[in-house]
UniProtKB/TrEMBL annotation:
UDP-N-acetyl-alpha-D-glucosamine binds at residues 12-15, 26, 79, 84-85, 108-110, 147, 162, 177, 235, 340, 358, 373, 384. Binds 1 Mg(2+) ion per subunit. It comes from Candidatus Phosphoribacter hodrii. This is Bifunctional protein GlmU. One of its GO terms (cellular component) is cytoplasm. The active site is at H370.
Length: 494
């Protein structure tokens, strides 16, 4: 059976969100790697509406630009100076075709845990019951601040009363309005046109549409949602954190159900758009952000943050900070590695302890074991970069690239002063500074003889700890020499 398709989904995102105490519009704050409004748009897109629209006002251009990045096909409608959710929906309808029929769903840009599955169920219930309005409700222990659902004796929805307009008896009701609706399009358009702002807040209430429907003898249904998290909005940064934690808990559980092994869910943070393959082990204190993709049979962590990363099957990434990089199948990274954007590590290759890479293509089987910086480089297959090496890529004006061939063996403390090319199979000695190209199979050295200037410390650094230690060592060596000479003399006399 084909699921019902709404004519339109209207997402309300016009509010300023003053309780956030932020220069940023409320709907642009993020949890799970997405903005609040992005979560709302994704949920709405999941039920395949003919029209998807977001109503904006506060910081209009900023919010609209962000929406275009999230969903380029999403329509934008502007709310005018008249306040209220009813006016917001009315402005949204004005930007849509005038002859709309079917079902219009209304949601909010600050309800990030609402799912497409729930919206689909609400839509099916609404159209299956052939009612004029379906309102999503929940029962909560403290309904303060919410609109209350007032029912008739037969249990049908009579009206929705806002907190400021409610009587004491109505305020005692624990069934509350989520603000999420399914409307018959024709009724919604007609009802909004006749609404005024004669109420405690001087606003055009969307909730008054329920009263209009009842006055016309039309049925109003309630869809009671047991999962109250899906209807909870963000009004301040405390709620933002609470909803972020709950979203992460759900995301981590989904990852485990799909085959990931997560050692400590309480210290693991996984963004909404992250994917993790089967039997991958996530150790404690791991953050997987953005569009990170982890293959199967990997070991990630502990103490690792990966942002917009791609990690191949069977790879190991330990105590690492990485972003916008690729780790090939079977490769190993860390501990204490830093992968900056543009790093591409080939299959079975290694980036070791205290290694930083940037804009570097490292071939299959190659190794950068420890204590090195590799920036703006191409390294072939099967090559070993010795410890404490630096790819010197910046001349003070521009960046330059270094190319190291296949199966090279580069000594510790080698400096690659770009641009240079090292041919296949080349070697370098420890402490080499490479300033020009090296042909294949060559050994490159910085050949400078060792110089020893005896007595330099005593002459240039007198009365220091170093001078005193050197003097003591010299005296000890002289005494040992005298004793050795005496022993030889005694041996001769015998």
């Amino acid at each position: 059976m084909t699921p019902p398709r709404p004519t339109a989904v209207i997402v309300l995102a016009a509010g300023e969100g003053t309780r956030m105490k932020s220069a940023m519009p409320k709907v642009l704050h993020t949890i799970g790697g997405r903005s609040l409004v992005h979560h709302a748009i994704a949920a709405a897109r999941g039920i395949d509406p003919i029209h998807l629209e977001v109503v904006v006002r506060h910081e209009r251009d900023l919010v609209a630009a962000h929406i275009a990045e999230c969903d380029p096909d999403c329509l934008i409608a502007d709310q005018d100076e008249i306040k209220g959710t009813g006016r917001a929906v009315e402005c949204g309808l004005a930007a849509l075709p005038a002859d709309l029929t079917g079902t219009i769903v209304v949601t909010y840009g600050d309800v990030p845990l609402l799912t497409s599955e729930t919206l689909r169920e609400v839509l099916a219930a609404h159209e299956g019951a052939s009612v004029a309005v379906t309102v999503v409700t929940s029962h909560i222990s403290d309904p303060t601040g919410y609109g209350r659902i007032v029912r008739d004796a037969d249990g049908s929805v009579a009206r929705i009363v806002e907190q400021k307009d409610a009587t004491d008896d109505e305020r005692a009701i624990t069934e509350v309005n989520s603000g999420i609706y399914a409307f018959e399009a024709t009724l919604l358009t007609q009802a909004l046109s006749g609404l005024g702002t004669d109420n405690a807040q001087g606003e055009k209430y969307l909730t008054d549409v329920v009263g209009v429907a009842r006055a016309q003898g039309r049925a109003v249904a309630a869809y009671v949602l047991a999962d109250v998290w899906q209807t909870e909005g963000v009004n301040d940064k405390i709620q933002l954190a609470r909803l972020g934690a709950e979203l992460n808990r759900r995301t981590v559980e989904v990852a485990m159900r799909e085959g990931a092994i997560i050692r400590d869910p309480a210290t693991t943070w996984i963004d909404t758009d992250v994917s993790i393959g089967r039997d991958t082990v996530i150790e404690p204190n791991v953050q997987l952000r953005g569009a990170t993709t982890i293959g199967a049979d990997c070991l990630i962590g502990p103490d690792t943050t990966l942002v917009d990363m791609e990690v191949g099957d069977g790879a190991t990434v330990c105590r690492t900070q990485g972003s916008l990089s690729v780790v090939g199948p079977g490769a190993t990274v860390g501990p204490w590695a830093y992968l900056r954007p543009g790093t591409e590590l080939g299959a079975e290759a290694k980036i070791g302890t205290f290694v930083e890479t940037k804009n570097a293509n490292i071939g299959a089987g190659s190794k950068i074991p420890h204590l090195s910086y590799v920036g703006d480089a191409t390294i072939g297959t099967g090559t070993n970069i010795g410890a404490s090496s630096v790819f010197v890529n910046f001349d003070g004006v521009a960046k330059h690239r270094t190319t190291v061939g296949d199966h090279c063996r580069m000594g510790s403390d080698t400096m690659y002063v770009a641009p240079v090319t090292i041919g296949d199979g080349a070697y370098s000695g420890a402490g080499t500074v490479i300033r020009s190209d090296v042909p294949p199979g060559a050994l490159v050295l910085t050949d400078a003889p060792q110089r020893v200037i005896e007595g330099w410390v005593a002459e240039h650094r007198p009365d220091t700890d170093a001078a005193r230690a050197a003097a003591a060592a010299g005296a000890g060596a002289a005494g040992a020499s005298e004793r050795h000479t005496g022993d030889n003399e005694q041996e001769t006399q015998r």
